[in-house]
């Protein structure tokens, strides 16, 4: 499979990344999972290794590599079994930074994108609000122009890196009366007066901080508007393709991790006088699940290839997330079962995996919202176009 | 439905139990879930209310009520959303105490069963071992007769109430060379020298302590043998019917709880200008899941009715656990989804429910083992007979 | 299980019915399946045996037996593997005759119900129309009062026994402007001028004739109105409970038939040196499916018991049909698989079973419509009340 | 998607093929489906158009085109909704002819392959026997060398084109004592004395003839051995990759056909005052199914690409058939449902599609056998190597 998309350079990158993660990250994972907090030093280390800049312009310190380097980064982050650590990284790199890179002015990029690449600044992306995540157009946060500033009021919730990030990329209504045609994007410095954030206690992604954030008359310079006013909705939609594909790739990677772990476990665990990988019922289930994973992986790679070429793959990325996240949940549910009682124990990987994986069909657009989008494309022949 | 099996007395019992739980238990649940420990006082309170004796003989302080009182107890325990608290209670009442009551001598009953009913002593049932849970006959723990004592050596794991219980009902081999024909049951006092226990960190059932236990030359009086020597396996198998039905009932009850909570939530949560219980796709899913739950519930009641009449329902109880636990996992998975991001937050009930429910297809015989049993009954026409 | 609902008399009835079917019906089934036509003589034979009158009043020649005799009749009809023959019988007995018995005048009953019981007259129930089956209220057939007659115009389709029946129980609008509040029921003699019918070519139920019927100024006496004018919709809804439970019972019975056949086949068919019922993957699948069937059966019996007692089980009967028909389709799909290539051959029972079973989730209210009804009951707390 | 694999030439080919099929084939389909027989003239017409030679060498009259032409041929054959017609064609082109081309001598190729390409001779591939299809190594047909001839005895069943073909590619044991190491392949002329064949009555694929064949001392020249003696098993296994991918491609294509038909139907059918494609529950189901189909299609194309490059894709082709055929069955089951009662009528496409599609998980290796193979590859790390 790999030879279709992955060159030798890709493989070298994967290997060095694996070594880095095993040496620098894995020893801390349990601590971070327990504390619900990832220490700052690792951000800087990863930044200094260039991992945050792989698909960003060299002008801002990036490496400008193709999308399959990102795929590798995502896959390997899943395979150290901390959905929360992975989320913290990719929410920074691919939610917050994507907006900076695409719509930020040169000044904004120098101020936020460059230190994001080096790991000195951490970002987050704030779209969801307490009264509604699915209905993006229904958001209530406002940004009112006042002289050369905007005043932000409102609240956001479920924000990854929401408590610890240094800046926030925030969607707010500049023309509330226009619904989704009145949304704009801003970058807001954490230091701004009027921001408070509290941490949420979650089923999984426990190493990642997920915050509820209140903006109380937060005053920001007008230069912190990203792109054009009232174009926020198309920007968000456009970047969703990448986000959804990312979540699809994450899903196939953690499913693969679960399957490989289960395979190993089953080749060692004995019951009724044989290793349990000799029981036909388990063998067939495993063959089925492995196949489901391989098919999603192949699909996701094909979509990554097309996205990398510049195609607008909103339909396919939506499909990728919808199916890969469900597949991952099912694979992990069953791999936990393969471990019997040990599957239920937190010292073994499946318990955390199950908790972490369950976010897949919720975050970044629930499965129901994805089906809505697909129904519009497939049934109503709606055409989604890139923001211009 | 209820009128078919539940009398007015049953309903009164249910109501007073609900009141008790809401007043005495619910305020402590979060603490116990966090601490991984249930405080002693509640055992005594529940004992003094008679809840532990509902289906035990009056001679030992019980109430000798029909099985539908037990069904009510189980159902209501699920509906306060602590699988761990519920498990602690029913493992005591229906795993440990069932063996005492069925095979214990009068002396043993007076010494262990009576205080178990009053809540002064807590029990546990130790069958599973680190090297094998499914393959009961493969257990390695031994009990060697030496004068008027037995010497117990070996280890057990995944034992509910394994660390905090006052006595342990333990399966051990008295004739290892005979496989499942050489197993005997014992009651062992926690105070006996040579017992050590450590607590396991689990995905769910967090209020319940699950222990790994080592027996190092534990000396117990021969009178602590339960029933006859070498009859342990048939005893275990016989009591599995009740255990499996219990786990089936638990499953339909927690699914019902999840559905009722989701119904309420969905009638209040707005998206796109309406409450989300107006979206047809969600409505149909909910109708489907509710139906699955109702069908399992009806089945479980019918089996309880037959078990209560004294029928040997090994096939049906196996079916009950196999399907109800899977149904519950699926219902809860989807109810969590109905809550969107809030489903993922531990302050809302679904996260814990998902974690707790996942034990269903593992404990008390994995789904695979249940299918093995059913295949033997249905395909090979094997007849399971009660131990005599 | 059976002892809960079935007495010795029931069992004797079942046995004699089985003998009758094997002797009088089975030898003709293949012919009728090929011809798409059931010969008249068998109707008379079955009538003379009393099979059509088991739950009808003695006054009209019936036997007035409890609903479990009907359950037995339905089950045994499924087990001779002609969904079409079974449908012809139960559409006559439980669709057409139910309306006659419940809403017909004494005169109508003497003229139509009595010969229906003896098998001299065959009935059908005409609700569905070419432009809409699910939306009953949207029907277009009209009945216009003119003196002491009604004039019927319109068309019906998918009508079981639609071409060969002697009379038709027909829903038509007497007040079209009132939607479902303007529907009335009529019995129409086949001999009436202006009726034409053509037969449809179907995937399954091939022994049964399914007709498209046109009413062109059909003039019928006003006495052929069943019950009150404009009460047709509540009548239909009320009788749906029985119809849906019937379809649920049919489903569990044909699933059981498929499973029993597969069990036998698998105990004889060899592959890789053993009978295929030794392969664990097949064994587990079979155990799972058998369990699904048993659970539906237990549910259906419980609902039959309550319906027999006079409870209004619209929710439960809807659940019965929704889940049992899906279960049957899945069981049969997989049982066909167990036969390998032979499953695909019409000389073996699974091919026809698959074709016949597929009607389950469509006829008598599609699964989607059933979910709509359940959603209204469960989510909107809508109460369906019996017609008064 | 297409642009990744399909050039403009491919698209032109597809268009001209579609026109051919619509003009020359479609008008006869219903007749052939009813008669269970495909008339000879169409074989010759298709041969003269070059369709049978697209991936065969020019030396024998072929066009030597890449595998995506074959993919197009397969896809378009599915989209005229006669699984039987399609099967007759591809069993000829890709089961029988693949063996001739790969292992036939030049003389055999001239005598059989060339007229197969022109459509003057029709072939079939005979592996399955009445006593075992899955267990290929257990076959009982023998080929005994006698001078410069072989004498063939035994029987085969379920053979596509088994009654009407002009030659038969047959697996038989030359060294029965060696199991799968003693199988050889032969081409046998229909005219040979001692061959009898009878036609089977099937659930679907009704236009295709499926035959049971008896070989009674059939004498064939030794030159009709294909390849080397006792290498039949590896030859069969090797060619299975193509066969299984073909069946995967067929499956995604017929699923796509079903979905497109349903989309069209649903955009026209009214219920409750709107077109049924406005009901969210149906929309979401359709979006899900469409996605399943797209993902399988993308996977199948990726595997075709690799097979075309000469990779040995036994694992991937097995995955393709396993999942695509199940997906197709599920898609078609549900698309039939979308049509309501019309789905059950043979004049509408879904009934036949359902019947035809059901063969997918049986023919060319049952799903269970595919899981066996995958389990060996994934769990036991077995490596399948091409025959040398
Ligand atoms: C751990 C975590 C991290 C997150 N990180 C971020 C982040 O970094 N930034 C950010 O902006 N957001 C983030 N989110 C929020 C996430 O994107 C939202 O939770 C999600 O979009 C759903 O929104 P909601 O929770 O408000 O659910 P709701 O919108 O309230 O949905 C409730 C239910 O209704 C369903 N529903 C809604 N509308 C329809 C409809 N039309 N038809 C059918 N069903 C419908 C939904 O599918 C869901 O099942 C995060 C969430 C979590 C849990
Ligand atoms: C929270 C918790 C509480 C528990 N409480 C108790 C308790 O109070 N007392 C007690 O004695 N035990 C208890 N258990 C143990 C429980 O009963 C076992 O975990 C269970 O029986 C499985 O055993 P195992 O973990 O050794 O799995 P294994 O036996 O190692 O099984 C591993 C996997 O192999 C499968 N498998 C095994 N044999 C076969 C076969 N022949 N065919 C196909 N598949 C097979 C299993 O289904 C499983 O998927 C508890 C477990 C947990 C997690
Ligand atoms: C063999 C056979 C025998 C039959 N016998 C009889 C008989 O004896 N008497 C009789 O009166 N009828 C009979 N029927 C008709 C049967 O009851 C109808 O086919 C059925 O009710 C569906 O109606 P329809 O075919 O018009 O489908 P439609 O109503 O056109 O439905 C098409 C699709 O849309 C879906 N749909 C419709 N409304 C909604 C909604 N609101 N939300 C979501 N999805 C929706 C449906 O579920 C279905 O999937 C028979 C049908 C068959 C095939
Ligand atoms: C319409 C049609 C066309 C066909 N065309 C051809 C053709 O052109 N040429 C040809 O040679 N053959 C053909 N076949 C035959 C087809 O390949 C076989 O039917 C198929 O391989 C299964 O073999 P069987 O029918 O003997 O089933 P069996 O081998 O008897 O299998 C019965 C059941 O047992 C299961 N089973 C078997 N072994 C195992 C195991 N180890 N573990 C678990 N489950 C197992 C199977 O999966 C199946 O469910 C055709 C079949 C049909 C129906």
TrEMBL record, chains A, B, C, D:
InterPro entries cross-referenced by the UniProt entry: Acyl-CoA_DH_CS, Acyl-CoA_Oxase/DH_mid-dom, Acyl-CoA_Oxase/DH_mid-dom_sf, AcylCo_DH-like_C, AcylCo_DH/oxidase_C, AcylCoA_DH/ox_N, AcylCoA_DH/ox_N_sf, AcylCoA_DH/oxidase_NM_dom_sf
Record's keyword annotation contains Oxidoreductase: yes
Every Acyl-CoA oxidase/dehydrogenase middle domain range: 124-218
The protein's required cofactors: FAD
Keyword DNA repair: no
Top enzyme class: oxidoreductase
SUPFAM superfamilies cross-referenced by the UniProt entry: Acyl-CoA dehydrogenase C-terminal domain-like, Acyl-CoA dehydrogenase NM domain-like
Enzyme Commission designation: 1.-.-.-
Domain of life: Bacteria
Domain called Acyl-CoA dehydrogenase/oxidase C-terminal: residue spans: 230-378
Domain Acyl-CoA dehydrogenase/oxidase N-terminal, chain residue ranges per copy: 7-119
Entry keywords, A to Z: FAD, Flavoprotein, Oxidoreductase
An example Gene Ontology molecular-function term: oxidoreductase activity
Family to which the UniProt record says this protein belongs: Belongs to the acyl-CoA dehydrogenase family.
Name this protein carries in UniProt: Acyl-CoA dehydrogenase family protein
